[in-house]
Structures are given as C-alpha cells and as structure tokens.
Amino acid sequence: MRPVRNGWMHTTTPWPTSTPFPHAWLVVGDLGPGGQQPRLKVLKGPAVLSESPLPALPAAAVTFLMEQHEPRTPALALASGPCVYVYKNLRPYFKFSLPQLPPNPLEQDLWNQAKEDRIDPLTLKEMLEGIREKAEVPLSVQSLRFLQLELSEMEAFVNQHKSKSIKRQTVITTMTTLKKNLADEDAVSCLVLGTESKELLVLDPEAFTILAKMSLPSVPVFLEVSGQFDVEFRLAAACRNGNIYMLRRDSKRPKYCIELSAQPVGLVRVHKVLVVGSNQDSLHGFTHKGKRLWTVQMPAAILTMNLLEQCSRGLQAVMAGLANGEVRIYHDKALLNVIRTPDAVTSLCFGRYGREDNTLIMTTRGGGLIIKILKRTAVFAEGAGEAGPPPAQAVKLNVPRKTRLYVDQTLREREAGTAMHRAFQADLYLLRLRAARAYVQALESSLSPVSATAREPLKLHAVVQGLGPTFKLTLHLQNTSTARPILGLLVCFLYNEVLYALPQAFFKVPLLVPGLSYPLETFVESLSDKGISDIIKVLVLREGQSAPLLSAHINMPMSEGLAAA
Q: Where does the record place the Bardet-Biedl syndrome 1 protein GAE domain (predicted)?
C-alpha cells in the first residue's frame, strides 16, 4: 500500500459485520507526491480498494444522508476546488459547482479593448496591475496568469484568450453537515460550505440548490454547526483574521464575535462549549456568546483537532494531535488520556469502523496510518493521562482552631446577613458616588491631570497670567516615568473661536526627559468685549493616534482679572 499523506478521512460502514473490518471502508483524500497528484483512495482493511483522480487538492470530506428511502446508504461529499463531488456506493453520483462571481467591470473593459486591438499587451499588463493593487474585487484567474507571463509570451496569451469571457470563480475552504429537520443520528443532512469569497452556503441534500447564504468579514477555515436547518441552528466559523463569528438561522451576518489573540488551528464543539486551538500552543473554551471559560497550555504545537464521542457512556471530549507525537484527550480542561505515536499525527477521526463503535484512526506526517480500537470496558477518568494539580496543593494547611470570637461572629453573620449585605452595598454605592463627584470636579477644575495609561506616564499643570485682552498660557508638562524618555507628542487646543484666538491650535512637544517639568508657553487673545469667559480644553496626543493620552480643562478669566488654572 502506498503511504497515505496528510489528508482528510472519514469512515463509512453500510452493512453489519461479524469480523473486525471485513466491509469497513476508509476514504482518504491523498495529496500525492508534493501535492501535485491528488487522489481519492478507498481502503478496505490495509489494502487500497480503488483510486480516483481529483482535479484539485481536497479541502474537506464528510458523510451524510441525502434521502429517507431504503436502503439508507450514506453518501460521501468531497470538496475540491470550486466543486463538491458526491459519491454513493463508492461511485460518482453528483457534482455541484459554486456559482460564478461577477467579474471586475474595469477588468472586463480592458479585455474588451484587447479583443478589439485597441491596447497592446504591455499596456494591458500595466493597467491590470493597477487594478489588482487598488480594486476591492479581485482579478480573475485569466488575468492573474497573464500577469505572471514573460514579455515574449504575452501576445500569444492575449490572442488565445481575448475572445473568451472573463470568469471569476471562488473555491471551497471548509465543509461540514447540518441536520435538515430532525436531530436523529440517521436524519437527512444539508451541506454547509465555506468559500474563499467570505461566504457560507447551505445546500439542499436532494436538489443541491442553495437554501441559505451568509456573509462573513473574513475567509472561514473551520466550521461547527448545531441544531436543525428547518427549526433553529447555531453556526460558529473560525476565520483567517483570527476571529470566530457566531451566526443563527435568521441572521445573514454574524451576531457575536470572539476575538482571539492568535490564529486558530482547530475548532470543536463539546456540548455547549466551543474548544478552540491556537497557534500559541493552547486550548481555549468559550461559550457561544464569546465568554472565555478556561485555557489549557499544550507542551507542543497543535497540528489537528477532532471530537471524541463515546455514545455508550455519554462522553464527549476533544482530541488534539501535537507536534511532539502525542494525542491528548481533554474533557473541558481535565486531561483524560495521552496517546503516544511514533510520528506527529496530522489528522484524527473517531467513530464506528466495522463492528467496532469506538475506533480511532490517525494519519502521521511521514505517511503512516494508525488504527486504534477503544476497549468496550474502558472508562476515561480525569487525570488518567498525567497528574493535573501540582503536588503542593495536596499539602494540608495549618489552620488554627476555631475560637469563641469566630463562632460568635459566624452566628451574627447568619442572623443578620441580609442587613450586613445591605449596609455594605449602601457604603459601596456611596463610595462610588463620591469618587465620581471627585473625578468630575477634577475634570472641571483641571487639578493636576495625570495620564491614565501606564505606557505614557504624564502630568500636566496649566497657568494663565495677564489682565486681558491678551493672556499668557503656560503648560507645565512632566514625564513621571523613572527611566524612559517620551518622544513624538502633540499638544492640541480646543476652544470657541468666537471668543478666543491662539497663534497655533497645536504644536509638537520636544523630547521629555524623566523627572523634569517642561514649560510650554503660548498667548490667548480674548475677542469678546462683553466680558464673557469660556473653557479651553488641552489635549496631549501621540502622533498618528486620535485618542488623547491626557486632557485638561482651563477656566479662562474675564478680561479684567488674573487667574490661575
């Protein structure tokens, strides 16, 4: 048997068996040598039963039931390029192609001009490169191939393709199944496709028409679906921008968004928890609304993830294949088991294979195929893989004996618990009110504003001098850090231009050495002859950022007075 390379696999068992795997089929998407000759292989035991060439690299493979008629044989759907190939009884049954996307109108106009010989190939290349850099709609495959050609090959390519219409085709990036109207295991399922054009498509299982279309902000790479299409369903899509978007039946766009700190490498739904693997070697558990429940650090990089469901015991766990050759099984954040393999595992599949309900099939980075059968009497216990909590937690603390005072205080808390809680809440609300009032008063009177961010420790003090109508405004700006200078700051004034005039509304701040106070002077001219005064707001900003680092309100005096802010 030729070694199986990194691919996607699924098991199908249409008939009951009496021997371990006599009629169990294993379908594998084989990338071929160097990913140049992708093939669909069907294995029966250790032997290759059949091979079928694929026009493009396989992206996903799932089994699903298309109809309720007997015999109820599952069909195999294989996503490759822009098409979904459906097989029944291991024979080609149907081919679904994604609808074509509208081409870029500017690109279409350029090829029409080339068809009429109004522009030469060199001009066509320059204008297509300009469109590729600026246009929101990407170029077609025909234009992208033309841009890769040498100058001597351009004219022949244009003469060959200028009479052809421009076609822009997207490809499938991920695929999963969604129950149509029943939650049973043998219910009819719909196909859910994620495309390179940032869309999700739900296909009818019989007619293969598009039942629903949803848009995403980025390209989906992993999908998890729960529910039924005709009733209610919830869909989670992990995308290339590092976010996970949640969609429901009536939403055309995401309802919730989970922002990750790293790129996702796997997505598995365990009951109501979304388990996400990231390229920071960690597993995260989230609710459907984006609340993080737990985080587990892995000893090596995560290469693949899948669901382990032991129906006989009602157990659902997540499997993670690591780069160090381990396969770790977790229930929430508790480690259940560790399987060590001779090579790094690149894909996992757990389910029924032949007459065995709990079979784990793994492919390795070097081209190996490993099949493990879970014993029917096996019971997963938390901490069976390795010790979870550190040994220090098992050390008993030297807790002192209960005193009479402690017992009396406990009885008092039991009897007057409600009154004590109400008094605590009243004091807490009063403290918040006083803090809010003090904060507002500080903003209004500009009492020594201090930066709220630790990255830019700044302190500002303003002084207004003069009798008017021209005042001298001095800003004392200080860097309160211990050792780091600050550079690249701007000072901006916001004021009523009807009442006041300043020579410069903003100016740059020189390098601030830690510990020194720098005076920044400017003049303010009062334009009102009615003795009206107003507030001038001072903002300290970082170059290239709109959010201020520091702000202060200066109460300007009337034209006949002297005041200090």
A: 458-560
